[in-house]
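Pinned message: reference record for Guanine nucleotide exchange factor VAV3
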Amino acid sequence: MAEILWRECAEWLIKQQVILPDHRVTWPSAQVLDLVYTLRDGVVLCQLLNKLVAGCIDLKEISLRPQMSQFLCLKNIRTFLQTCQNVFDISPSDLFEPSMLFDCTDFGKVLHTLSVLSKSEKAQASGIKGFPSFAKNHDYYNDDIYRNLEELANERDYAANAEQPYTLADEEREEAYDVYEDIIQYKPSKNVSASHVHPVEKRDYCIKELIETEKNYIEALNMIIKHFMRPLKNTLVADVRKVIFMNIEELAEIHTGFHSELYKACTSSQYKISECFLHWKDKFIIYGEYCSKLPAAQERVEDLSNKSEVINQAILRCQQEANGGKFKLRDLLSVPMQRILKYHLLLKELIRNTPKTHEDYFGLQKALDAMLDLAQYINEVKRDNETLQIIRDIQASITDLRMPEDLELKDYGRLLKDGELKIRSHDDNRLKNRYVFIFDKVMLMCKSTRGEQYSFKEALVLLDYKVEDVASSVRVGSRDKWSYFWLLAHRQNKTALTMYAKTEEMKQKWIDAIEKALDNVCPAALRTTDHIFQMHSFEKPANCTECDKLLRGIFYQGYLCSVCGVAVHKDCIEDVRSCGAPRLPPRPPSVTVVPEILRRNLTSAGRKPYMFKVRARFAYQGPPDHLSFDSDDEIYVTNKLNNMCWEGYVARTGKTGFFPPDHVEKRPPSYENPFPSPNPNAVENATLAPDYINTMLEGHDWFAGVMERDVATKKLEELPSGTFLLRISPKQNGSYAISINYQNQVKHMRVCTSDNGQHFYLSETKYFKSIVELVNWYKENSLSESFNGLHVTLMIPYKKALAGLNNESILGYAEALYDFQGNSPNMLTLHKGDRIIILSKAGNQKGWWKGQIGENVGYFPYLYVKEIFD
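Predicted structure (tokens):
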């Protein structure tokens, strides 16, 4: 009979529609613990009472997602018990104690309370018979099956076994969905000519659905404004109207503009659908506020309708005027939330029916990512609003908690765990019962007083402590439930606490919560970066510097560097650029650069023909007919299909496929194929033009500008033998001179010019068309050809030697294509044509290289230069 009792209780709950008919409690393998888990957090119990008597429990007073927080679960259970007594007239003697359910110490008493409730007058009004169906010949509630559940419940993981109940909230969501479908959903019209967008294929139908449903949504917003906001202006005070209608007028204005751009994208080639979503994403952020405040708005409508017949009748008239009374105001208010969470589904369907070669294919993927990011942001804002209310409730329940000035409990982070522990301080060695709250930054230790009230005892800054796990040795047959312990030790060994839990599983969950709190405040990834990151609450919506996605929620959304102001997600800390490197400025307008014909770029006749080479800016994992490549991979472009899709093959793998051009950048001209040809052999046998010579002196690392002879001597005598420079001699009327350190002596040679000024030479045995050609020749050939006894070449440009003294290895050289103004000491200012010594490419993926011009060293954007390979 005892086994039948809990099963009949489960059946009664199913008939009351608070748990689903196929719930795990109905399975043949079901045990009484499955029903315990279903009821243990108090949510189903509160929903049950609201089902029996609508509105008897204010949903604001309970937590619908307590996640087994003891504080929240017990609050729900107490709300249920109080309502049973006040509304259903159940005697206190028939009510169980909250701990009997949460701690599973007497589930039989819980079943007794529910049985009495099922047979109460108000419950019987539902027409559903109470339980048990059999006569009570003895007290089945006291059977051992219900008295030995505590240990079993503690040993099993609630989260792994819990199942979401079917609640009134589910019904409300279904009703809201029906309203959305009826008002907004696209219904294909037989009269195709009535629309400006004529569907021809599946993709066109997706676009038409997007346009038409957006138009319907704007009409729905305007209906709320016209038939509810304005008529109720004289009935509801301004503050109440603000709570109920929030920012609906602003939403209507935003979506009118959004729809206008969407329409243009479908009727003009100047716009793309993807660009519409990307452009309006920032405006859509206000949905975070709307969706988080929606439950309060709907509850205010219900509350006002129940308390004031005047307001109720006014709302009914508005509903009748708007839609013939078909939809309630509270349901219409949910339409904006339904709409904003639909966009990613509409985009997924559009992408599914868009060819990968379509010019907007990759743009639509970006738009989808943006709308998914927005949806996650909105959900996190909703969740954070609930979390903040929970924290406020906790702060109010600790009667003697004294917070520092201008601080609230929320300033210590999110609640990670709470519950009862036994704690022994090593200072006095006394074992005490404590109710503990773990937040990101602090651990509060309180004493339970009565109901939901606690007396504050102590607060620990968790960052000052470390966890030391201790292997628990529990004696077989021991009845001590608090035998599983660990140490919380001060990092400077000032004190320590021994903390006791009921089971090994509970102990591990407490340790995990403390370690999670420590990692939130001081993430392990901080060891890999030079930033000074701290958890931070951003007042306004912000984006992660690294991944460019929204920092989600409304408090402690991410981490802020106190030095450079960079904001990141926790998961992005490890990848963020160095604190020293400045942010990459926008790339200047593209200009046509005449490609330089340099060296032969094909080394084997077997290479496939290609147009030019590119370098992968970052990794890409494409669909089956697309390429997959890593950052810095070389890719040979064979076909430019359009601005959004190119075709080519990866040098490393040889694989051929499509790829998005915004994932790559052009190789420096020296890598380009100067003679593209369908015949590889034709390229191999072609006669190439001679190497291009840059005759501009200012960009070369051996040019010193105007410099006196003694200054050159002083500069070179401290540098290695073979180091040289070219200078303009002020004493020789601006003539050029070469100075070189040869065997620790500095020699000076005048560069002469021919009579017509067209050629340069050191001796009349060899003439050159430019100074640069002269220098390049003597880099390869000894100066002894012109000066007896000077057996040396021009080996080391003096700027390169100076860089060597600074312990920087030279990776190569680059020429500035654009001006760039460095606005901080660690940035290098560029002028078009500057020659830069490349010292480091460590910041390559973030867009920065480190280099040197003259004696100035700093970071510069590598997209502003072209690498020189001479």
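Pinned by admin. Summary line: The first helix runs from residue 2 to 15.
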